[in-house]
Amino acid sequence: MSKTKKKTVTPLMNQYNSIKAKYPDALLLFRVGDFYETFGQDAITAANILGIVLTARNNGASKIELAGFPHHSMGTYLPKLVRAGKRVAVCDQLEEPKKGKKIVKRGVTELVTPGVVLNDQLLDNKGNNFLAAIHFNKKNVGVAFLDISTGEFYVGEGSVDYIVKLVNDFSPSEILYERSKDAVFQQKFNTKAYSFKLDEWVFQKDFALEKLHHQFGTKSLKGFGVEKLDAAITAAGAVLH
Known about the structure:
By secondary structure, the chain is an alpha/beta fold. It has 2 domains: 11-112, MutS, DNA mismatch repair protein, domain I, CATH 3.40.1170.10; 131-240, Nucleotidyltransferase, domain 5. The chain is built from 7 helices and 11 strands. Strands 3-4-2-1-5-6 form a 6-stranded mixed sheet, with helices on both faces. A 5-stranded mixed sheet has the order 9-8-7-10-11, with helices on both faces. A hairpin with a 4-residue loop joins strand 7 and strand 8 (141-147). Helix 6 (205-216) crosses helix 7. The radius of gyration is 21 Å and the shape is elongated.
């Protein structure tokens, strides 16, 4: 009876895999010493967008695709990834390397998307950079617009045609919507904005109220005049998420 060789993974890649699993839809920039590195499909994508060399790294008994750049070049390469419509998770070293310790603690310190940007190199000083969320309920449609660089936060609710007009007027950089509503979103919203599907639990009114009350330090939304706009409230909770 022949023995099968057990597939091994290096400690570094084991750490990478555990962090990547938390951000499966983002391109993960993984800090290793003086470099930010990408692995696997992320490396292939990054190499194509950034025009950097694609190589390979030993991963136990196998190899995995690798592409990286010096940490001081982040200001050059991050904007290119975001402008290409990528959600980027930046994973940094959270402690200084210690003698005798092989793996340093790492964690994601920033998630940058086309609609969630604070970097001056990615912002247009002449206009807003809105992140939008759209919620479809049985009666109508709700929408929320948030610009985290200025703090502007708007909500609206009405017919599909009305929300389409608002989206066209606000021209968000990114739109979030429910995964189960993909067909209706694609049919109704002909927009150049990047879009991203979220799970249905994000679009629950109770979840939204909890988010909004915490954000504004209130127990009610009456002071904002939106307490009866259920679809808009739900969208607002999703955009804060």
